[in-house]
Amino acid sequence: MSTLPPLPKIDGDVDLMLDVYTHSSLRSPGVSMNENYGDTQRLEDLGAKVFDLAVTVHLYNERPVMNSAEEMRSKRIQFTSFATIDSWLDSYGLKKKLRIAPSEINAIVTDPVEMTKYFHIYVGAAYICNGQDIVQNWISRLIDPNADVSMTSAPPRADVYVHPPRYQSPAYSQPQYAQPQYSQPQYGHANTYSTPPRQPYFSPSQPSSPPPPLPSNPMPSVGISLVNLAIVNQTAAQKGIHVSYPAEQVGPSHQPTWTVRCCMNGEEKGIGVGKSQKIAKEDAAKQAWVAMGWGS
Fold it and tell me: Region (Disordered): which ranges (predicted)?
């Protein structure tokens, strides 16, 4: 990747930095949670949601507007896939910064589940240190180096409390809440409470000309939200393509993580990760559907 935006900083807290750059293979069992952010599992869960939101917001604000929500979902699957995340980790050299048990280095850095977790942990840490806007701008420029980041952050409404970054080091400042203003009611008359007018969240300019008409005979297609395992398998069979789903399981038996690959004629077209084999298999099949161009 020729043009990389700078990584959001997560410095300022030694414990946080150590946790982000230390794999679980080197962690001692039974270590108590950090009182500010908990542990890397909490960071991972937060980061996964923040990352998905940032990608969705970027795609939503792309101009010209995408033809359909299905197109946006397809692109979101592409940008949140392991292949994309892995390329970003390599480009930033983040894999080299991760401390791993020597006996497990090769297995960990090539494991889609572990590397996706690592990226999500970093995103979660970046969020609590810098806030959503910084992370949003970073992800938008990862997707498109020429992105207009002013489009990804709408101005806050006047009567809504805007959260600062959720985590501050070394001291946390007490947030201030904006209080709505009320006029004093006059007794003997109807109460006349008034609040400041709300600013619209987003007011796009009106187009100078009406949008072009839709084609009269659009080609039938299956939206990505409707795609499931059966549809992928049926479509592949109709096209004479052999589909296989090699699967791997890691973690304890009571809380496993599954990685499933969807291969078309032996060529990997999608990777799914989930808490069950079924979820991972469905995700891999959807990625393969997009990679094969069957939704267009």
Answer: 170-219
Residues counted in the chain:
296
Query: Could you give the CA distance from residue 36 to residue 166 in angstroms, rounded to a whole number?
Result: 10
pTM attached to this predicted model: 0.57
Where are the strands (E) in the chain, listed by range?
243-244, 247-250, 257-264, 267-274
The pLDDT averaged over each successive group of 10 residues in the chain (296 residues) is 84 88 86 86 94 94 86 90 93 95 93 94 95 95 87 47 48 48 47 47 48 45 72 90 89 81 90 86 88 79
CA distance 242 to 44: 35
Which fold is adopted by the domain 1-155?
A: Ribonuclease iii, N-terminal Endonuclease Domain; Chain A (1.10.1520)
Domain layout of the chain by residue ranges: 1-155, 226-296
Of the candidates 155, 160, 163, 154, the residue with the CA atom closest to the CA atom of residue 180: 160
Burial 77-94 (b: 16+ CB within 10 A, else e): bbbbbbebbbebbeebeb
Nearest CA to 142 out of 20, 47, 43, 58 is that of 58
Residues 6+ apart with CB under 8 A from 174: none
